[in-house]
Specification:
elongated, about 60% helix, mainly alpha, abc type-2 transporter like fold
């Protein structure tokens, strides 16, 4: 902009005091503000007098709230755009990697089949050797009763007692049944026959369950034999048992819902623990640090895709549990997904913390497995918490997986609601807050 004429101190010039400099195309105020035809500056920051500017605004004038609101909305919109771009990048990276796709889709199916069929505490077809010294109709009927339920399978019948010891020593049989001579005669005379049962206690669970089954079968056989031969025997106590929630006492009904928690834990820990350290190894973490992304936006971009994968596995496992294994589902799907959300936050926080304290992917991988085993063992996944020593029972209260498994099993089998599950939900929420806060604090310190 070009001025003609000269500007004199004090704003005076020939032609009159206080005259203003003029512009070739118009007039200008003292601070370069265009003056309208009425001699008033257009900028609201100045008065009509060129020597007395208005003090700066304190932000409380008309329209200041609207401007602040627009600023916040623009910042939020920009933040969401950055997070959305990072999410697209992370999802593309996950689905472009064939190993990650196999891990996300194939691993849950394989593990569910293994836990549903191979990992079982049910006792079926227990190998049994029978030493029958009596060789009577009654002894053969007892053997038939032993095999009728499908719990036992007789692999050898002999009269040599030493064969029973050899079979147990070599692992050829788990149960040994010794029927003495005079077994049928004692039953007929009402003197009470005796039968010896030897159990291989190497596997304590199978041995205990099998021993209980044999005792009940033999006792029931004795009562049935006495009634069939005219002896009216009435038990002192008429015991009638019924199992709720799992009438068949099938282990897969108990184990399969718990696979949901184990798989979500594995996926969240594995993918999240490698997220940050992978960027550090590839040298792209520094690029992300100098980008407009904030630490919170970077954490969201790294964890939200893993959360989506966790929900995919949850849906997949739940569908297979219902349609393939026939596990009953009595509760609310919405409550199941809400509880899974709280638990996934805990798992993400733990995985992110492992990633921030690791320098290489191998170190993060080993740290993940170091944490994974105690979490599974102390969760009640395979072993009841009540059977643990008191110290470890209290230690399991710090394990969010224990609370999540209790929630999942209660929703599946009992149809429990928030009124029954609020202690577990509260414990998982506290764990999520602590783990996420700790991991965010550690992440911010690690990128400084």
């Amino acid at each position: 902009m070009t001025f003609t004429g000269e500007i004199y101190p004090g704003g005076d010039r020939p032609g009159g005091a206080g005259a203003q400099p003029h512009e070739a195309d118009g007039e200008m105020g003292r601070w370069g503000d265009t003056v309208d035809d009425r001699g008033r500056p257009e900028d609201a920051g100045f008065t009509s007098s060129p020597h007395r500017p208005i003090p700066p605004s304190d932000g409380r004038g008309p329209g200041s709230d609207e401007r602040r609101g627009e600023t916040r909305r623009s910042r939020l919109s920009a933040s969401l755009r950055r997070i959305r771009a990072l999410l697209r990048k992370e999802l593309r990276q996950i689905w472009r990697d064939p190993r990650t796709k196999r891990l996300v889709l194939a691993a849950p199916v394989v593990q569910l089949l293994l836990f549903g069929y191979a990992v079982t505490t049910d006792v079926h077809d227990v190998t049994t050797i029978v030493v029958d010294h009596d060789r009577s109709q009654a002894s053969r009927s007892l053997q038939d009763a032993l095999q009728a339920g499908g719990y036992f399978r007789i692999v050898q019948t002999t009269e040599d007692s030493r064969a029973l010891a050899r079979a147990l020593d070599h692992g050829d049989a788990t149960i040994g049944l010794d029927i003495p001579r005079g077994f049928e005669a004692d039953l007929a005379a009402g003197r009470g026959a005796r039968v010896q049962v030897l159990v291989d206690g190497t596997n304590s669970n199978t041995g205990t369950v099998a021993q209980g089954y044999v005792a009940r079968i033999v006792q029931q056989y004795g009562l049935d034999y006495a009634r069939a031969h005219g002896a009216a025997l009435a038990p002192a106590v008429d015991l009638r048992t019924r199992a709720w929630y799992n009438p068949g006492l099938l282990s897969r009904v108990y184990n399969v819902p718990a696979v949901v928690g184990a798989l979500i834990t594995l996926m969240c820990l594995l993918l999240t623990s490698l997220a940050v350290v992978r960027e550090r190894e590839l040298g792209t973490l520094e690029q992300l640090m100098v980008s407009p992304l904030t630490a919170t936006e970077l954490i969201l971009g790294k964890t939200v895709p893993v959360m989506l994968i966790g929900y995919i596995d949850l849906t997949l496992v739940t569908t297979m549990a219902l349609l393939w294994f026939g596990v009953p589902f009595q509760g609310s799907v919405l409550l199941l997904f809400a509880a899974a959300f709280v638990y996934i936050l805990s798992a993400l926080g733990l995985g992110l913390f492992i990633s921030t304290i690791s320098r290489t992917q191998q170190e993060a991988f080993m740290g993940m497995f170091l944490v994974m085993m105690p979490i599974i063992i102390l969760s009640g996944f395979m072993y009841p918490v009540r059977s643990m020593p008191l110290f470890f029972q209290r230690l399991t209260l710090l394990n969010p997986l224990r609370h999540f498994l209790e929630v999942v099993r209660a929703i599946f089998l009992k149809g429990a609601g928030v009124a029954e599950l609020w202690p577990q939900l509260l414990a998982m929420s506290l764990s999520a807050i602590v783990l996420l806060s700790l991991s965010i604090w550690r992440f911010r310190n690690s990128i400084r």
